[in-house]
Design goal:
By secondary structure, the protein is an alpha/beta fold. 29% of the residues lie in helices and 22% in strands. The protein has 4 helices and 15 strands. The strands form 3 sheets. The chain has a 6-stranded mixed beta sheet with strand order 3-6-9-12-14-15. A 5-stranded parallel beta sheet has the order 1-4-7-10-13. It has a 4-stranded parallel beta sheet with strand order 2-5-8-11. Strand 14 and strand 15 form a beta hairpin. Helix 3 runs antiparallel to helix 4. The longest helix is centred in the first third of the chain and has 16 residues. It is globular and about 40 Å long. The mean pLDDT is 93.
């Protein structure tokens, strides 16, 4: 997918996810969560090139300063990920975020300590992460799941789960019907 096609896909996705989005121009200029994802794409591309880890980290720190969203350059972020009201979002180095994920403010995809290797969550496609949710450790959240606001998630959740509480528990998610 080309640069402009991906840009248009991101803008259309933000408009479809946020009823407050007035136009593509509005989203292009004023959506810091989207700006953070775009800057992450650049920092991730640098991260993957030998000898460019420091420039990758510098780009990610600039993104953090400008947007309030911290995404480590090593994290893998899927397509059509939308960070709504992104202030305080933190995504760790070994995190994996699938396609069509919606992330609200204050979400942390973090580790549990100074462990080497895969130490951050893996988020399946179509997952919703509620405001303030903390997902910690090398857990897997199955596709189509929803994590409630302020949940502290320390264990895997199967696909199509509703994950809530401190510590969080999961149960089957009842699909919500969206208005066209």
């Amino acid at each position: 997918m080309g640069f402009f096609s991906r840009l248009d896909e991101d803008l259309r996705n933000a408009q479809s996810r946020d009823p407050a989005a007035r136009s593509k121009l509005d989203v292009l200029l004023a959506y810091s969560g989207l700006h953070a994802v775009w800057m992450h794409r650049l920092s991730h591309a640098l991260w993957l090139r030998p000898g460019l880890a420091l420039p990758a980290r510098l780009v990610s720190q600039l993104a953090r300063f400008l947007t309030g969203v911290e995404i480590h350059p090593g994290a893998v972020i899927g397509r059509r990920v939308f960070i709504d009201h992104g202030m305080g979002v933190v995504i760790g180095e070994t995190a994996r975020v699938g396609d069509d994920v919606l992330i609200y403010h204050g979400v942390t995809l973090g580790g549990l300590g100074p462990v080497r290797g895969h130490r951050h969550p893996t988020i399946g496609d179509g997952v919703l992460l509620g405001a303030g949710a903390k997902l910690l450790g090398p857990i897997i959240i199955g596709e189509g799941s929803a994590v409630g606001a302020n949940a502290v998630v320390l264990q895997d959740a199967p696909p199509n789960s509703l994950v809530t509480g401190v510590p969080a528990t999961h149960r089957p998610r009842v699909p919500v019907r969206r208005e066209p």
